[in-house]
User: Fold this.
Amino acid sequence: MAKHKCPYDNCMLSFSRPYRLRIHIQRHQGIKEFSCSQCDRSYHRQQHLKRHVDEAHQNKSRLEQPIPCDHCDRQFNTTWGLHRHQAKIKNPKVRTREHSCTICGCKFFNHDELERHSLRHERFKCDIPMCPFATRLFNWTVYFKHMEDYHSEPFECDYCGEQFVRKAQLRTHIQTHMPNFPCTIAGCNKTYALIKNLSNHIRSVHGNRTYKCNVVGCDWNFKYKTCFKRHIKVHESNGRIVPMAERKVQKNKNKSKCVMAEKLAALAFKI
Assistant:
């Protein structure tokens, strides 16, 4: 099977399909191709975006009654997970570790994994003239760090000309030259280096966007999605979302987590 190797330096991963290599390169570049039209979330794969839209914007929760498998006792929250599991049962792929290391005897599934493992046993010597560490032997990790710190070309700042040994140091330094974007809301002294971060701040802190709990008997609103998700977990019982009026609080177990549950249950009974 043809192997598609990553073109980036110091990345030894390879893939069997070109589209998998394309997604991997996008992760190096920080690019997420598929963006949600209803919020600011974005994903590398289209199926991940579809799953996000179903759960976040169409109220199709995966916490419904799990689907059992007909061949074993496993249960799945999605149909595609069940189909993938059943396909493995019908057509099992027996993988054997045919490639073994001649030094330590470790076995691997393919030759690329064996090559990456072999670098641990090899020792590398710096061949740069007049290097103070020319007589020292390094393993692969230390050798790469040594070449990066002592013998790589310095990274120069385009704004002031200052040079740095590592690219991460240059990236941090460039932030000092970037303009700061202050918050336009009166009374807020927040400033951000990127306009994207400022927009997210205004939308989440000063905007009217809220996440409302749609469980029967609960009318709580949240400004942040993380708080909303943490609140939804309080309603969960036996893998499905139920009103707090039907929830049974277990005694002597997670008493601190049931304080809000008891308050919500009392509110539901009053309604």
